[in-house]
Fold this sequence. Notes:
This protein is mainly alpha-helical and 72 residues long. It has helices at residues 13-27, 32-71.
Amino acid sequence: MNTSLLFIGNLGGGEWLIILLVVVFLFGGKKIPELMRGIGNGIREFNDAKKNVKSQIEEGMKEKDNQSTTKE
Length: 72
């Protein structure tokens, strides 16, 4: 089991505030919207790819069902 990311669930308000301040310090206030936009685009692309794979799997299953009903 990967235990390296289990600590994320135990973060309180103070820890999140420190993380937020570090991000603001590292990226600056002007870069954060650009960073969030990039993350949003990445999530959108991931979801589109996931939907595409799901539709291809469903399409393949329908083709297999059609082939099995025509053989009978």
